[in-house]
Amino acid sequence: MAAGSALILAGGRGARIGYDKKKLELDGDGETVIAVLITKLRTLFPEVLVSSNTPFVHDHIVVLPDKLGTGPLAGIYQGLRYCHSAYLYVVACDMPFISLEYIRYMQEVMRQKPVDACVARRDDGLYEPFNSFFNKSCITPMYEALVRHEYKISTLLDRLRLHIIDLATMQAFNQEDMFFNINAPADLDRAKRKVQSRALGR
After folding, report:
1. Which residues have C-beta within 8 Å of that of residue 22, sequence separation ≥ 6?
2. Residue 145: φ, ψ to 5°
3. How remote is the C-alpha of 75 from its chain's centroid?
4. Which burial class, exposed, middle or buried, applies to 20 when counting CB atoms under 10 A from its CB (0-12, 13-18, 19+)?
5. What whole-number distance in Å separates Cα of residue 26 and Cα of residue 95?
6. What is the pLDDT of residues 22-78, one digit of tens each?
7. In Å, how far are 95, 96, 168, 169 from 8, measured between CA atoms?
8. Global pTM?
9. What is the rounded CA–CA span in Å between residue 124 and residue 50?
10. CA-based angle 97:98:104, to the nearest 5?
11. pLDDT tens-place string over residues 107-116
12. Phi, psi (degrees; rounded to nearest 5) at 68
């Protein structure tokens, strides 16, 4: 099997932002957030997939529509069934500030530990299910959850063998924005300011 695969979740309707999130842009040069993610992930993964129920065309990218259930859990399930690796990195198409260093750290966890998933959990107890890894061992429990119409990823995670990344470990990577996602116009404005500040070295 290949050394890990990656899945970009791009099935959301973008109701709050007002358009399909696959069209999100940050710097006005016509390059979308999802295209930037694909380029970054290809430096780490031989296989990059996109989960979407609407058309998406990008160089040699396989697009996977949901086959069972709906929502992110259905997308991850389909990605695990299709991918050619033992484990799958999952990120959403509206998360522009992923950290490759952090992803490499999680890759090592998945290589070395017999766990179903590697996922961060905030101090308030809530999981960060995107920007995480899932093993193919999750296929059966995901299938069972989807058949029961249980679509909350957090409910499923409580049933799995997890390697949980705590806040202190996350902070060690000095990437405070790696879980930032764009839901509304205000989030998009904030992301654009972050990009401009980084370009200016601030």
Report:
1. 10, 32, 34, 52, 54, 56, 93
2. -65, -45
3. 11
4. middle
5. 11
6. 999 988 777 899 999 999 999 999 999 999 999 888 988 999 999 999 999 999 999
7. 10, 11, 26, 24
8. 0.93
9. 30
10. 155
11. 999 999 999 9
12. -140, 125
pLDDT band at 201 (very low <50, low <70, confident <90, very high): low
Q: Is 142 exposed, middle or buried (0-12, 13-18, 19+ CB in 10 A)?
A: buried
Question: Which segments of the chain does DSSP mark as H helices, in order?
Answer: 33-41, 72-82, 100-112, 139-147, 153-157, 167-172, 185-199
Length of the chain: 202
Give Cα 14 distance to the centre of its chain: 16
Give me the architecture of the 5-199 domain, per CATH.
Alpha-Beta Complex (3.90)
